[in-house]
TrEMBL record:
It comes from the Bacteria. Binds 1 zinc ion per subunit. Residues 85-267 form the Peptidase M48 domain. InterPro entries: Mito/Outer_Membr_Metalloprot (IPR051156), Peptidase_M48 (IPR001915). Its cofactor is Zn(2+). Residues 1-36 form the signal peptide. Keywords: Hydrolase, Metal-binding, Metalloprotease, Protease, Signal, Zinc. Belongs to the peptidase M48 family. This is M48 family metallopeptidase. The keyword Electron transport does not apply. The keyword RNA-binding does not apply. It comes from Acidovorax benzenivorans.
Length: 283
């Protein structure tokens, strides 16, 4: 479901009118300092080798195919599903704080869907296409604060354009061996981005990508009024799940838990605590 698309009963005006109205209202009611409290540095310039629009369009196509498959299996949650409504409420609090991290997010048609599966998994594809599996909510018994940390983390991957960067690195290296063809209009890189949509769900991010997503997601969630310490309890739950006999740990195959990850989050929780407290006062 597109969170900011006009309802069918709304008279046609600008297709973004509902989205703009929501963002303006949210910005007025949840004002916070623009300056980031966590330090993740600048986004990699390598991502510019891959056309953002091409990758986002490819991701949108792959996302729709995934939803069609889930629908055919009767695994796609309807709009009135309580868990999906819960996720929509979290997303509507987080999304207004996305744009300072990536101006392209103004144009994204954010979607959040819930898929019935025992898999412990969630993701956000380029362009703001979010999906949760029921397994991650149910098996880990996530609180709203913990679910917000996961959503913020996955949104951060998209906002920092980690997929775009990874594709640029892998495909750019290969193309460099072909007489520097990446300098000739970047056509090959564009084709690579378009053809890799089906691999976006299994794309492996680097340790630095994961660290960035943890910290940006932590700040997004804190600005939206979610308890920062939930980032620590979330990854403690992840660590416990990885050592148990629970099946379908897809999330942990690409997002490994560990003491170092938890220590870094514990170090950064105090940096965003003031944002959380301000959000709670203003909310």
């Amino acid at each position: 479901m597109c969170l900011f698309c006009p309802a069918p009963s709304v008279a046609p005006s600008s297709p973004w009118s509902a989205r703009r109205a929501f963002l303006l209202a949210a910005g007025a009611s949840a004002a916070a300092p623009v300056l980031a409290q966590v330090d993740v540095g600048s986004a990699s310039s390598l991502r510019k080798l891959v056309p953002a629009e091409t990758l986002e369009n490819s991701a949108a196509q792959q996302y729709q195919q995934m939803l069609q498959q889930a629908r055919a299996k009767r695994a796609l949650a309807p709009d009135n599903h309580p868990q999906l409504q819960r996720l929509h409420a979290i997303a509507k609090r987080l999304i207004p704080y996305a744009t300072p991290w990536n101006d392209r997010a103004r144009q994204w048609r954010w979607e959040v869907n819930l898929i019935g599966s025992s898999q412990i998994n969630a993701f956000c594809m380029p362009g703001g296409k979010i999906a949760f599996y029921t397994g991650i909510l149910d098996q880990l018994k996530l609180t709203d604060d913990e679910a917000a940390m996961i959503m913020g983390h996955e949104m951060a991957h998209a906002l920092r354009e980690h997929a775009r960067e990874r594709i640029a690195k892998t495909q750019g290296t290969n193309l460099a061996l072909r007489l520097g063809s990446q300098l000739l209009g970047l056509g090959d890189l564009g084709q690579a981005a378009a053809g890799l949509g089906g691999q976006l769900l299994t794309l492996q991010f680097s340790r630095s990508d994961e660290s960035e997503a943890d910290l940006v997601g932590l700040e997004l969630a804190a600005r939206a009024g979610y308890q920062p310490s939930a980032a620590v309890s979330l990854w403690q739950k992840m660590g416990n799940a990885s050592g148990s006999k629970q099946g379908g740990l897809a999330f942990l195959s690409t997002h490994p838990s560990g003491p170092a990850r938890i220590r870094e989050l514990e170090t950064n929780v105090p940096k965003v605590q003031g944002l959380y407290e301000a959000a709670r006062r203003n909310g």
